[in-house]
Specification:
PH-domain like; globular; alpha+beta; five-stranded antiparallel sheet
């Protein structure tokens, strides 16, 4: 019982992004030949690409940022998701993904002039199209 309650309130892994960008070489080399980049985001230390099958995140670690970790989130592992748009007291937007095993990933989009609502909506549409529409076929 206690373990179930503990798992229910696990904190999400958070990745921050500042703007929409083009696909970088570091992410391109980790993609399969059949994959195409649909949408890319970047921050000072993180990069992310949405493909038709997954979300691929590059995370720089350490002081120099030379240590790199990659995280792959297959769309088929998402059990539910939600989007929080810019507005109100919280100036940032977010997409919260709940994965199998009650793993939570939060994609935070920090408000600035280079990131607009359309970028967040594009990300949401990619997830929805893959999660809902592709699973029906």
């Amino acid at each position: 019982m206690f373990l179930n309650q503990l798992l229910k309130f696990t904190r999400p892994t958070i990745y921050f992004f500042l703007r929409e960008t083009e696909l970088t070489d570091l992410l391109r080399e980790k993609m399969c030949q059949e994959e195409t980049a649909q949408l890319c985001f970047v921050s000072f230390r993180n990069e992310m690409v949405f493909t038709q099958k997954r979300i691929l995140i590059l995370e720089r670690r350490g002081l120099s940022g030379k240590k790199i970790r990659y995280a792959t989130i297959p769309f088929k592992s998402i059990t539910w998701y939600r989007i929080g748009m810019v507005g109100g007291w919280d100036p940032d937007a977010e997409i919260l993904l709940n994965l199998r095993g009650n793993v939570k990933i939060q994609l935070r989009f920090l408000r600035n002039k280079d990131l607009n609502k359309e970028s967040i909506h594009k990300a949401y549409e990619i997830i929805t199209r893959t999660f809902i529409c592709d699973s029906c076929s």
